[in-house]
Amino acid sequence: MPLTPLRAPRTLGPALLLRPLLALLLVLLVACTSSGEQGDNTDPAQVDAVEVPELRACRNLSPADVAKPSNATRTVDCSEPHTAETYKVGTLPEELHDLPYDSDSLGTWAYTTCSDAFEAFLGADESVVMRARVSWAWFRPSEQAWDEGARWYRCDAIGGGEASEEYDELPETAEGLLLGVQPDDDWMTCANGETVDTAERVACSEPHTWRATTTVQVGDENTEYPGDRVVEVRSRDFCAESVSAWLGYPPDYDYAYTWFGEGQWKAGNRRSICWARTDR
User: Fold this and answer.
1) Which of 41-45, 150-154, 167-171, 241-245 has the lowest mean pLDDT?
2) Cα dihedral sign, 28-227-163-80
3) Strand ranges inside 159-280, DSSP E
4) What is the percent of the chain with per-residue pLDDT over 90, rounded to a whole number?
5) Percentage of residues of the chain with pLDDT beyond 70
6) DSSP H/E element including 266
7) Residue 203: closest CA among 195, 214, 191, 215
8) What is the distance between the alpha carbons of residues 151 and 88, in angstroms, rounded to a whole number?
9) CA dist 6 to 242, 246, 252, Å?
10) What is the maximal distance between C-alpha atoms in the chain?
11) Helix 20-33 crosses helix 104-122 at what angle (to 10 degrees)?
12) pLDDT score at 165
């Protein structure tokens, strides 16, 4: 890789970060194809409900719950421990009403709707949300309720992502959780280990060797997918500059980058994540 004059970045190559946006995309795909029984702690009144769910309800969701297309987990008072909060509900647009229950178009619509509302709810832009330790999941009616004409959707903020074995507790409300020039490090993603792809993901308030510092845009919404190699090279070069600026233009530094493939591109992601080797 050509080195920028006065700098000697050392790239450690593509990192394998299952960060919030990717987690959401994976959840989206699973939710479009999964079926089966509701999870534990089910409220029978919610199982085949046809009415729009309650906004700002809190629940204790698990990764197994999030992997299902519908959810009827009992609500809890938001002052009690919980891992999920409903931040947007509504009725699917009429043009989607006649689609099959597991249509990919439902997932595409939910991705745009829930992700836009998620940024507004947390008080952050796309770059910050991509590097945060919170994500979202969406749910639709049960298949029985769908057959009866229910067409609601529910977007939940959750305290973790696809790689989480269990979710963290959220505050009483997650609204505004990422507000400010520098969001609380408790909710930002760092890694502790020799290389980003093998390092344990930790909160940036914990000891760490890497921080997800920035994101870089590798295409716009009207750009066709340019191919894996082009996206990787753009990510590498843009992150070299971005991390150098974040570190204050040192003569020598380590950085890594996370880029995503065609599937995520088609879902709307045009950004890659940049990592700096740092303990701050």
Assistant:
1) 41-45
2) negative
3) 189-192, 200-203, 210-217, 252-258, 271-277
4) 75
5) 86
6) helix 262-267
7) 191
8) 14
9) 15, 16, 9
10) 66
11) 150
12) 85
